[in-house]
Amino acid sequence: MNMQNEDKTKFNPNYEGDGQQQAQERLQQQMQQRAADSSSPLALHIDQVDMSFKGAKERVQVLDGISLSVRKGEFVSLLGPSGSGKSTLFHLIGGLLKPEAGDISIHGKSVVGETGHVSYMPQQAALFPWRTIEDNVILGQEIAGRGKRELRAEAREWLRNVGLEGYERAYPHMLSGGMQQRAAFLRALLSPHELMLLDEPFSALDALTRSDMQRWLVELWERHRRSVLFITHSIEEALLLSDAIYVLSARPASVVQRMDVPFARPRREELLSNPQFLRLKQDVQALLR
User: Fold this and answer.
1) Do 272 and 236 touch, CB atoms closer than 8 A?
2) Do the Cβ atoms of 249 and 207 come closer than 8 Å?
């Protein structure tokens, strides 16, 4: 789907009162930057990956020739029906499983069957209940060998930046679901691994908290631009957060289409009512049927 041919007079990415001309100029500049970035290094490349599992009577094919890429500093989402193998793909990228065919490379190096190359945020916060919030946040860097005293000082600064000041020495059960997810995301962000895998991190949250977390995530990511592969079942969430979206078929999953998301950054919730946003949402819904 080539969105560059869209009539720009019908598109108003005017989230904060910008004039139409200024908004269009910002969009054009970012599209030019995106074109330049198309030659940037790949943070992740998946090439023709197949995967199946042993069933009661026969093997069940889960992934069928999956190929996709995430460039350095790009936010890419995966959309697909439930049970289409998205979490299995994350397990393959993380080295917990080995594909039956195909290759997986991270920053140009094949990592099939190897762990320790990505930071990962699961559907639940998965914070260790016996560790304080600051000690949960520094876990990845602590495992990598850095000193705890230095890490705690850095963690306190980050916790203040993400709205968790005053909770440094609290334990996970003392925080709300949204606050726990912020801490879990910060733990992934501070991991020494540049590529982040986010597996439906907001799916367990109520609608209002989820909306707040989406806004928080997009603002934080736009400041730091880590390479992200993000699983979601929400089309709106994918369009709001992503530079590109891969739409997967039902099992056995294959790539139906890659869609580049054309909206300028920074993005705000007002985008959700934009006519072009609504048209794109309908297009993705059609692909998922």
Assistant:
1) yes
2) no
CB 136 within 8 A of CB 187: yes
**Treating both helix axes as pointing N-terminal to C-terminal, what angle do 177-189 and 207-224 enclose, rounded to 10 degrees?**
20
Give the distance, in angstroms, between the CA of residue 101 and the centroid of all CA atoms in the same chain.
Answer: 25
Choose among 281, 234, 253, 201: nearest CA to 64: 253
Residue 229 DSSP SS3: strand
Give whole-number Cα distances, 197 to 82, 94, 179, 193, in Å: 18, 9, 19, 10
In this predicted model, which residue has the larger pLDDT, 175 or 1? Answer: 175
Distance CA 148, CA 93 (A): 29
Q: What is the DSSP track for 167-208?
A: -TT--GGGS-HHHHHHHHHHHHHTSS-SEEEEESTTTTS-HH
Q: What would the pLDDT profile of 220-269 be if each residue is shown by its tens digit?
A: 888 888 899 999 999 999 999 999 999 999 989 999 999 999 998 888 88
Pairwise CA distance, residues 279 & 285, whole Å: 10
Rounded distance between C-alpha atoms, residue 41 and residue 225, angstroms: 14
Whole-prediction pTM value? 0.81
